[in-house]
């Protein structure tokens, strides 16, 4: 039997394996025999040789049997590996192994592609499942939106029938897609007869384009047939594109008239409210009238506004004026006789002069105003038949009945404010006179210093005015000056003389009047008016600085004492020069400068004080 190279290699491998096994067996046997103490005889050797030969024979038989198997199954192996045994003769084991490895690689590649396609198919299946789920959800949502839209449409239709307004809807081109019953009824038509907006409104294509460009909150609709009514429109968008235009309109202009009336009444109420707020917090006539007239001129957009009050000469004296033009404002003092403004005052009547025919008599001023295309209104400031003055208004537009009612309401508010201020002034005057009478008891005990408290109060007032303090603060400083020596009432007569002054009269005076309800600044001024500016003569460790009112009273008090001991001639005082060394220690440098300014620029007023002349109430307070 001829063997192939492949078979030879297998056989050699088997024989080599068998030979190696025999050698290793003999070697192992030899080692065993060499290490044993037993004696070895010929019988043992024969036995060993027999075993070895039997083993070799067994190996030979096994090799032959394996070769038979290989040759028998060779064709199956070729078929399994995809090799044609008739064309190719495999003589090397490596060649067979390489073919096997190539086939194995091809199988692995096919398996990898299969897995990849399987994964792609799985992902595709997942995506399809998700898409199906999303489609189902979107379809459910769409159906819900459709149902909601249908419900809204039905609700809109029912609601539109309840509105007392004409309602219709057009598409972007102006084709009517809905009208409520009120629209059909008022247009004397039927819904099927209305196809475009031009069947409802008397407008052009260009005019309809305006509705596409913007929403109109209020505009006058001109209907086909001549009717007019106020209405509005609202554009309805779908994805930033206009889809529909909704129109609402009143059935007549009555709603528009009511809206305008309401707005005007609201504006008038706001007008009156603003004026009331201005005048309610004022306490002086000049500021009240000026603030009020400026607000009236601004809110009414009048050419000019002025307020005149009657004075002791029976003239209407100008007190406040405002407006964007003062061209037609009369001079400061206007006589009551022979003038329309005087007629309004005397007769307590509102006088409206829109045209020359409205003139009651010849009046050159009024004629000039009307010829310049202006209108005039005179509103008396009166309350309970008590006339205080007249408010004059020059306007570029006619005064109607509604504007007259508004101006009359404003005049009543101004009049009430004037009466309140005048009453306040009278009460304040009486209050100061009462205090003056009270402190006079302090002065009359010393003939030389008679009127000292009143003169100190007036000088304090002059200093306060130089500081540009408000009227309330000026009154407080005046009050503190009047009461600064009230504590001397508790001492004997000779203590009222300057050289017999008692240090405690300031604190005693404070205790005497602190329950009256005077402010702390006034009380501090009374108590500390003999305190030095640098506190060098202070015995009170709680005082860190001389109070502000006390600084004013101190210099006013010492000036009056200086005048009584030196001279009563206002032109000859040397107070500033004599007191210079005391500036910064006894007196505040600020008030010493103010005192010097008064001596230079207000000599006439000081002269009246020291000549015991009667000071005008307005100047005094």
From TrEMBL:
Keywords noted in UniProt: Coiled coil, Membrane, Transmembrane, Transmembrane helix
Transmembrane regions: 12-33, 45-67
Domain HD: 449-562
InterPro entries, alphabetized: Cyclic_di-GMP/3'3'-cGAMP_PDE, GAF, GAF-like_dom_sf, HD/PDEase_dom, HD_domain, HDIG_dom
Cited Pfam families: GAF_2, HD
Coiled-coil parts of chain: 104-162
Domain of life per record: Bacteria
Gene3D superfamilies in the cross-refs: 3.30.450.40, Hypothetical protein af1432 (1.10.3210.10)
Protein name: HD domain-containing protein
Natural source organism: Fusibacter bizertensis
